[in-house]
């Protein structure tokens, strides 16, 4: 007996008729919407098309905000999972201004991040990356900075690929990327980035995800814990090698805040068992289709960056970012998009003295709550 003969697969047209019948007077295509990145999302899923993009994932190592050993050459971010028996740090992340980089001795156990890489002269810095990286374990390309300034995921990842294509493939690189509150989009963008890295010759690249600050409440700080949990789940399901979870109250000097946020990943590992499955969302039509859309849009935007004169590239990216930030802000102002404790259910009395900010003229990290 062949079950396919007993239960034939309905055509796409038949499936839509059934859906429309259930929705009654609501047109099925009215449920379609565009997310923050302009990706069309339709909540009607079926398997008439195959969008499967398998990837390899592993449970991320946690990069802690708790201990920050100071040194004469800058600020070190340690990875607590990599303590040796003698308590020596085995993997470190070092962030320095460009003018101090030449004063640092070669340190083969440190990944280097250049703080002022993003500027009008960034295109001139790219040829120097191999020399920077050769003196250290590798180089950190911090895309999260651009996201915290308001850039959308398509622009950020394609811009990162534009830079990576100009760097020799043998260099060890960590891509640092922010995870915000659009749950399915965050999963899909990470899966898309993993797919590109694993299938287009970027063998020496690892992904460092961090929970975003741009969408966090300045009041109702406990709400941030919920956001951090959602973002952490998205980061694990999407696939990353390292993960940092910011303090829920945005206080980087408070041990309690840092520890509570860090426990989010520990709970997901030991109680939700998210460390037991590789690529757990493989075969999910909704996420596979969304992943495919991100891959397509990222490569299209990459072609756009390549078409621009190098001298105009940074200005074009800046203009796109500020335009996107303005669009996000308008959606929160009109409550088309909601953030609990920010533009809905606000706290009756301010308990923080954080000043509101005017809309930026250049790329600077910002929180939406500061602009509302």
Q: What value does the Rg take, in angstroms?
A: 22 Å
Morphology call: globular
| Total of DSSP H or I helical runs spanning 4+ residues | 13
Element string (H = helix, E = strand): HHEEEEEEHEHHEHHEHEHEHHHH
The CATH architecture of the domain at 61-270 can be given as: Alpha-Beta Barrel
Largest sheet geometry: 9 strands, mixed
Q: State mean pLDDT (0 to 100 scale).
A: 83
Distance between the termini: 63 Å
What features would you describe in this structure?
This protein has helices at residues 3-6, 12-23, 98-101, 122-125, 129-134, 144-148, 153-164, 183-199, 223-238, 255-270, 285-307, 310-333, 368-371; strands spanning 33-34, 40-41, 61-62, 70-71, 74-78, 92-96, 107-114, 136-142, 173-179, 205-211, 242-244. With 372 residues, it is α/β, with parallel strands linked by helices. The protein has a domain at 61-270: Alpha-Beta Barrel (TIM Barrel), CATH 3.20.20. The strands form two sheets. Strands 3-11-10-9-8-7-6-5-4 form a nine-stranded mixed sheet. α8 (183-199) packs parallel to α9 (223-238). It is globular and about 75 Å long. Mean pLDDT is 83; it is low at 66-90.
Keywords summarizing the entry:
372 residues, alpha/beta, TIM Barrel, 9-stranded mixed β-sheet, two-stranded antiparallel ribbon, 11 strands, globular
Short note summarizing the structure:
This protein is α/β, with parallel strands linked by helices.
Walk me through the topology.
Blueprint: H1 3-6, H2 12-23, E1 33-34, E2 40-41, E3 61-62, E4 70-71, E5 74-78, E6 92-96, H3 98-101, E7 107-114, H4 122-125, H5 129-134, E8 136-142, H6 144-148, H7 153-164, E9 173-179, H8 183-199, E10 205-211, H9 223-238, E11 242-244, H10 255-270, H11 285-307, H12 310-333, H13 368-371
